[in-house]
Amino acid sequence: YDYEENQVTTDEEGLSAPRLLKSTGSSTNTLDLTWYAPSTGEYCVKEYQVCSSTTARSTDPTCKTEKTTNTTLGGLLPCMEYRVTVTPVSAGGVSGLNAFVTAVTEDADPERPEGLKVEDRGYDYISLEWVKPETNKQCIKGVGAKCVESSFLPQTTIASTKPTTSSSTDPPQAEKAETSLSMVSNLAACTVYTCWVEYPDTNAGWIQ
Question: Fewest beta carbons within 10 Å, which of 23, 38, 156, 189?
């Protein structure tokens, strides 16, 4: 008998969401993710659209396509939580349901505070103002504001406080720097002090 070969492709079915999407690793600027093909329409999947955006700010998502069920997202910011969405796409260009996961990049040290100056003072307090660094400022987790009597550094340290932000009063530039304020109190009157601010780093130390 002679049989004439005749190949026929069945129609596409709707794609369900990818299964078990999870983050499997991270660095200061990357996230690794894996997932499984959707349970419905698995053989209809041509590729996956992977989109990411930070949860802390309103930004347009960054998207790319993947042929496999794993990916590494690069060019991310440290100390940030990201929402990652994975959507299967069929050969006909039809998108299925999506799955999402949130993951956090690893911590990095911020740059040192800059432009420290005395914003106000009284007989028992000094108010300090400084400029937050542009690099890794999202990694700042608290701040220490300290004043020590200049005659015997460093025997006495005073209070550490959390910063509050205010708009800069410096002349306008292309983009105003973000400043912080903190007050050191319980100081002695008529005394010369040396003051500084510092940020905690990733090694349980301080960046001055």
Answer: 189
- Pairwise CA distance, residues 47 & 49, whole Å: 7
> pLDDT tens for residues 26-85?
999 999 999 999 999 999 999 999 999 999 877 789 999 999 999 999 999 999 999 999
Query: 14 near 40, Cβ under 8 Å?
Result: yes
pLDDT of residue 176: 58
Give me the amino acid identity at 16.
Answer: S
* 3-state SS, residue 44: helix
Cα-to-chain-centroid distance, residue 155: 37
Question: Under a CB-based contact definition with an 8 Å cutoff, are residues 80 and 57 in contact?
Answer: no
Q: 67 — alpha (psi -120 to 50), left (phi > 0) or beta?
A: alpha
Non-local (6+) Cβ contacts of 48 within 8 A are 18, 35, 65, 66, 67, 69, 71, 86, 87, 88, 89
Cα dihedral 26, 30, 34, 35 sign: positive
Distance CA 27, CA 140 (A): 17
